[in-house]
Amino acid sequence: MKFEMKTIFVSIIMAVLILPGCKKGMEPEIVQISPEKGGISTEITIEGFNFEPDASVDIGEVECSFVEVTGDFIYARVPSGIEPSVPLDVTVTNPGGRSATVEEAFTAIPPELDFVNSATKPSGITGSTVILEGSAFGSLQGTSKIIFSDGAGGTVDVTVSSPDDWTDEFIITTVPSGAGNGPVYIETELGKSNEIEFILAQAATFSPSTINWALTTSLPVAVSGHSADFVRIEDETSGDIKEFAYVTGGKNNTAATLNQALYGEINTDGTISEWVSASAMSAGVSFHQSIAATPFNSKVNGDGFLFALGGMDEDGNTTNTISKASINNDGSLGTWESSNEVLPQGVHALGAALFRSTIYIAGGATANNEPVAKVYKSEIDTLGQLGPWQELTDLPVAVSHHGFLTFGAYLYVVGGDSGATEPDAASSTSNSSEVYYARLDIRTGDINDAGWVLNSNALQKSRSKHTTLVAGGNLFLSSGIYAAAAQGSSENIYAQINADGTVTSFNGATGSNTLSSQGGFNLFNQAGISYVDANGIAHVMIIGGDNVNTQGTKSSNVLFY
């Protein structure tokens, strides 16, 4: 009897001692596992209950070497050596030995490459940033490689400078020395990705200090307050690359707002043989901005889309509408239609730029011509649909009629008017000489924490209603409203863009002639594009514009250098 009582007493004591740790004996429960597919070192997330701190994870027959338990979540990296292309069980085992399994929950696959520089027809110069997007790259590089063609049947491996630049869906690197035209792909332990053809662009020759303008085919109508774009199209039959200039909207010599859309194919020497009328816009618009999204600069399918953003309608009202037309393989346009999104507010004389399949807009003026400082972005999907507009860091100053563009991973705002100016006015007392730049987060597309930075070198003269382009690694400005004894004396200026986003001091772009001497106009409210011809020579083209000396007299001239 004493023995039995002692046994019972000991059993009770042991039970009391074990109670606080009884959770260790509980069976884990798995609710969800994601992703369902991935590569070696891809991080999977296991959601569930009763996970113990030292739980292990097996995928198939192989145990994961990296496992992190955080409450109801487990994070584990796919281990090397698992069987590829077969759905495998995923098992979570607590230290006490109890386990839970989800059958055929994960499949290890070779990498899938969707876009390079957010495009399906990418290009870049040696040393330029390359961004690869897709899936199953692995969360760590390990033995995986990025491979470029050397253009002669061989390959060139790529160095990824930082571990943070390699993620499962996103890799940042640079075009390696020795690369040439040909496929780029990713190779992992599980196999090789699909290939995307990469065009090695040449560092184009551009000498603005010896600029020399020449006339090419004129527009069919004199115009100002219009917009222009450069577009590359791959011929679906021959595979040859064709280049086009597009012109939309504007006002003619009677001040009528136009709904025209024109395009001209650019010849190998940089000229245009003829301008062709494309599908007319659904309504007239002026002082808008147009953006061309194509497989060479975005994720869109087909040959791309031309967007017209904001501006002033035929009655002079400022609008927030966005219209778009598909770009056909022969350069013509499909029917214009309303976009699925509108601008966050009605603005004209705004800035618009494209970076990694995302449209950025900055500044502009409202219905009473008051400038704004707002900056937004919207991502374009493969079907040409715009995502919701997201507000970014405001400009340091409200501005309209300014230059706005991207180069590398930077946005630039150049000059502009900080006052309430009439769009067609040939004078201003509130022009700016300031240049601001902002670094973009390559992963998110947002402006980084430093925000907008004032460049230490300003324009020599305050300027608005001008053209701002990038050519040969330089910021190039032409024409516009600025103070000068003779408007043509400061017609064109340029400054080199540094690797850290800063801009050097501006110099005059001189030559044996000027736009004014060749075309007979001191221009403002003109349009412009920059492009590279088949011989690797960079060009700038100035299209139309109003006359500073005789306001309201428009130009149909097209000049290029």
Task: Summarize the SSE layout with pairings.
Layout: H1 2-18, E1 29-34, E2 37-38, E3 43-49, E4 56-59, E5 62-63, E6 67-70, E7 73-77, E8 88-93, E9 99-108, E10 112-116, E11 123-124, E12 129-135, E13 145-149, E14 155-157, E15 170-174, E16 182-188, E17 191-192, E18 196-200, E19 214-216, E20 227-234, E21 241-248, E22 261-265, E23 276-277, E24 289-293, E25 305-309, E26 322-326, E27 337-338, E28 351-355, E29 358-362, E30 375-379, E31 390-391, E32 403-407, E33 410-414, E34 435-439, E35 453-454, E36 463-464, E37 467-471, E38 474-478, E39 481-482, E40 492-496, E41 507-508, H2 515-519, E42 523-524, E43 527-532, E44 538-547, E45 554-560
Parallel strand pairs: 2-9, 11-18
Antiparallel strand pairs: 1-3, 3-7, 4-5, 4-8, 6-7, 8-9, 10-12, 12-15, 13-14, 13-16, 16-17, 16-18, 19-45, 20-21, 21-22, 22-23, 24-25, 25-26, 26-27, 28-29, 29-30, 30-31, 32-33, 33-34, 34-35, 36-39, 37-38, 38-40, 40-41, 42-44, 43-44, 44-45
What does this structure look like?
The chain is mostly beta strands and 561 residues long. The chain folds into 3 domains: 25-102, Immunoglobulins (Immunoglobulin-like), CATH 2.60.40; 112-200, Immunoglobulins (Immunoglobulin-like, Sandwich), CATH 2.60.40; 208-560, Neuraminidase. 4% of the residues lie in helices and 37% in strands. It is built from 2 helices and 45 strands. Strands 11, 13, 14, 16, 17 and 18 form a 6-stranded mixed sheet that branches. A 5-stranded mixed sheet has the order 2-9-8-4-5, with no helix packed on it. The radius of gyration is 30 Å and the shape is elongated. 45% of the residues are buried. Mean pLDDT is 91; it is low at 1-24.
